[in-house]
Amino acid sequence: MSLASGANGGRLAFYSMRMKIPDGRLVSILMVCVYFAVPVEAQAQKADASRFAATDCDPSMWNHVWSPKRLQQLAPCISVTGTVLESTRDEDGDQHFLLRLDPDQKSLINKRNKKKKGGALVVEIVCANPTTQKKPRAACAGYTNSITLPQPGWRVRVSGSYVIDTHNGWAELHPVSKLQKTQ
To answer: Which residue did the predictor score with more confidence, 41 or 158?
Structure first.
């Protein structure tokens, strides 16, 4: 048996065996099993996200997400509050920022956020900037996001889809539908 990782934490299992059939010939059989498993940590995050459920998200924002299959959606719309630690323009046209969440929302952060992002939530405003990469251009073609880009130090309330970026393993709000400066 061999295993290969798939999208969204799924796995592919390949089983092969040889057997004799009644006439004495050997035949090879290959079976492929596909199963999807949501890691225990993601299950806990998904359950906790319901505490922050919101209704002010725009599902059409997903039309402008480049390679959406890499994002495992845990909740379609949540709202969080916190302080912007950094805000950077990404080559894919998105504005990425790190948000130090208020203490009552820390359960939305996973181990990867703690290890790679200093315990901050990754937040992405899609199509906020011109893209310098070829592949993501189609997602933003004819669309420019009008959400105000946050500055480090701002206190904000952000609404968006709560996801796990399966390429990096951390939790994100991506795509953002609404951002309000609160102070």
So the answer is: 158
- CA–CA distances in Å: residue 98 to residues 8, 109, 123, 171: 23, 12, 6, 11
pLDDT more than 70, % of the chain: 74
Query: What is the pLDDT at residue 52?
Result: 86
Length of the chain in residues, anyone? 183
Residue from 105, 102, 88 nearest 151 by CA: 88
Look up tokens 């950077």; give the residue: 88
6-10 long-range contacts, CB within 8 A, separation 24+: 6/34, 6/36, 7/69, 7/70, 7/72, 7/166, 8/36, 8/38, 8/72, 8/166, 9/36, 9/37, 9/38, 9/39, 9/42, 9/72, 9/166, 10/34, 10/35, 10/36, 10/37
What's the pLDDT score for residue 44?
52
What phi and psi values does residue 13 have, to the nearest 5 degrees?
Answer: -115, 130
pTM of the complete model: 0.75
User: Which DSSP helix (H) or strand (E) runs through 42?
Assistant: helix 40-49
